Amino acid sequence: MNTMTQCRACTSRNLLMYLPLGYHPAANAFPRPDQLGETEPRWSLDTHVCLDCALIQVPDVLPPDFFVDYLYIPSASDTMHAHFAGTAQRFRERLVTAPGQLVVDIGCNDGLLLSACQREGLTTLGVDPAANIVERARANGIEVFNEYFTAESAQRILAQYGPAQVIVTTNTFNHIDNLHGFMEGVVTLLAPDGTFVIEVPQALTCIEQNEFDTVYHEHLSVFSVSSVAALGRFFGLQVVDVDELPIHGGSMRVYLRRGGPVAPVVAEWLERERQAGLFEAATYAAHAFRVDAIRDELMALLRDLKRQGKRLAGYGAPAKGNTLLNYYNIGPDILDFLADRNSLKQGRLSPGMHIPVVSPDEIAARAPDYLLILAWNFGEEIMAQQESFRAGGGKFILPIPKPQIIA
Ligand SMILES: [Zn+2]
55 CA distance to ligand 1 centroid (A)? Predict the structure, then answer.
């Protein structure tokens, strides 16, 4: 394990530890029931922020082999299908200037975004180190370079495929420990007039909406626009535009280029972050206080329902859910099961708390009274899908931004 002492983006040592989440197992390492006797390794998830660039970050990094068998598949979500179709359309309209120019998706996962790009007529290449997921991408007709993206592998991609007009990374940049090494690779592969596009959850919403569970050992960073700008400056890239995105509880799409016009929204974002206090320690102390207040309120609510004899379960077994379950100490004594559409997780147990993960079909069979929505970033989609649960008298509980029951 590697523990960082300076900011991943701007290299400052002005780091503040503000949320002592303690030791957690890897949030995507779902043990099988027969592995219960084995030791579950845990690492510190204490959350820091750089007060110079407002990058929220976890210093402790998992060994890299934890990503080889990766259990997150975005294709499981209807919301992400629609989102990536919009992203691909934007690339065709705004970033790709001639036929045949290459769009490279780093951390392409099962190829959902690149499939959408292909439907827009774009030429694509995926890069991903996870062998089991790359097989799925290839089955979807996506060319994939099956390695970690580094300065060195970028040289080989360039030699084999030529420069990239667009390099995109969606919900992957926040997985990267060595951001400077990654950025070296980006400027190696990027065409002179190319655009580097980063889609990630953003710090402002994370702090304001109490989304502390956005952080886990694989989501090492929550970026502010300021932190992306600070990082880009080391590599001659500047932030030229920012799109605000409603996915994952509040995300952004940041565009970096070597030059060219800068959209007015960039300065507006930097000012918003300053005014929201993202460079001030007091902001994070207040956030940490709210996170603990939510725990007290949520636990009182769940225990009260249990006392009334209600049956409770969780909806979703996302990585972020494990940060919340482990920090709030919510186990199988409170939640009978977690329902998740991802078949790779079904039949396994949640990391740390060991709540069984089952198919959403079980909800009808086992008829819980309440579903705690752990995948709160897909809350609307989940509640729409579970209309029959609600029609049968079932209720939902949303944990954040503050606990609430939705009947
Ligand atoms: Zn920094």
Answer: 6
